Structures are given as C-alpha cells and as structure tokens.
UniProtKB/TrEMBL annotation:
Residues 16-35 have a biased composition (Pro residues). Keywords: Membrane, Transmembrane, Transmembrane helix. Residues 139-157 have a biased composition (Polar residues). This is MmpS family membrane protein. Residues 99-112 have a biased composition (Low complexity). The chain crosses the membrane at residues 46-67. Coiled coil: none annotated. Residues 1-41, 70-161 are annotated as: Disordered.
Length: 218
C-alpha cells in the first residue's frame, strides 16, 4: 500500500513564507520627466549676436564718414608725374567737407524793343491877325489841300524824302485886311516863310529837296 506524501504545512517549512506586506499609506510619487530641449539658439546667444551687429554697424558708419569727410592719407605736396615724364608738385586744396551752394540761375535779360523810327514830318503854319478871314491852301506837287479860314493855324504831313515829291508849299490870302506870316518847318525847323499885310495880299512859302536830300527854301 502506497503511502501519500505528507501535506505541506506552513508550519513545517515545506513552502517559503509569504512576503511581507508593504506598509499602509499613499504610493511614492513618480519623478517628473525632464523638459524637452528647445531647438534653436538660446537667448544669451541672440543678445550676444545683437551686440556684435550694433558694433559692426557703428564701425562701418565711422569708416564711411572718414572716407567721405575729406582727409586722406595723400600728402597735398606729393610729386605727381606728368604725361611728358617730368615731375610736378600737386597742391591740393584742403577739402572743407562742406557742399558748395548751387550758383543762382542767371537772369535772362530780354532785349529792349526798339521803337519804330518816326516818319519824317513837314509842318505848315499861319500866324498873325485875320479879322476878315484868310484862305489857306497847302501840300505838295502831288497832294494839294485846303486849310483853315483864320489864324493861328497849323497842319502836319508825312514827308516824302524818296525824291518822288519835288516840293512843298503853303499859300495864305487875306480876305480884306489883317497881317499874317506863313511858315514851312521840316522836323520842327523853319525852312521857308512869307509875309502879307492888308487887303487881299497873299503870303506864300515853298521848299524843294536838293540833290543831297536836304530840303531848302526856293
């Protein structure tokens, strides 16, 4: 008869004892994961690069001002070689750095318009007293006109100096009494004159153009 093996008992040492129970209380907290690393440059690098950029900009401005403000390393008394091989001293005027003001625009002077030359004149005059009136005729060999009937009287015509007109004359006849003088003037200058007094006497004056072109008394 087969014997059954003995049943294991916690008290006989046949099985390992139960593990000890954990103490009562909240579980231990887990440690937070580390923050992810940010891609790109850090704030410190950005500040450093900004400072370097400002320094480079200031340095560039200083170099530009020095280059345009006149003043170079050239000596104004340096010797410059001419094209013919000789040496000449170049005296450069110092550059003040100031921009010259633009020269004012020249005023355009318009030419003064010339007045047309006045045409030559011939004037006829009768002066004196004519209580009974006077009959006046005047003009040229190609233009005879009737004048006034009392003195003083005057009239002016354009004078023909071309040679086509041969003479100018004036005739004044008293009408029953009086005393008169008749005169012909060329450009305001008296050239010929006549006189009449009393009754129906006639006063007459005449001028002609000479071969030199001047007018003279007949």
């Amino acid at each position: 008869m087969t014997e059954n093996p003995p049943t294991a008992s916690p008290y006989n040492g046949g099985q390992p004892p139960y593990p000890p129970r954990p103490p009562y209380g909240p579980p231990a907290p887990f440690a937070p994961p580390p923050p992810p690393k940010k891609k790109g440059m850090s704030t410190g690098k950005i500040v450093l690069l900004s400072i370097l950029g400002v320094c480079v900009l200031c340095l560039g401005s200083s170099v530009l001002l020095a280059a345009t403000g006149g003043g170079g390393d050239d000596n104004p008394n340096d010797v410059v070689a001419a094209d013919d091989g000789t040496s000449q001293s170049a005296s450069a005027a110092p550059h003040s750095g100031k921009t010259k003001a633009a020269a004012p625009a020249k005023k355009t002077i318009s030419p003064t318009p010339t007045k047309p030359k006045a045409k030559p004149k011939v004037t006829f005059k009768v002066s004196g007293s004519t209580p009974s009136g006077v009959d006046i005729t005047y003009g040229s060999d190609s233009d005879n006109r009737q004048g006034g009937d009392s003195a003083p009287w005057s009239a002016t015509l354009n004078r023909d100096d071309s040679g086509d007109t041969q003479w100018y004359s004036i005739t004044a006849q008293l009408q029953g009494g009086g005393d008169i003088t008749c005169t012909i003037l060329v450009d305001g200058k008296a050239i010929a004159s006549g006189h009449a007094s009393g009754g129906y006497n006639i006063c007459q004056a005449q001028i002609i153009q000479g071969w030199t072109g001047t007018w003279k008394k007949v």
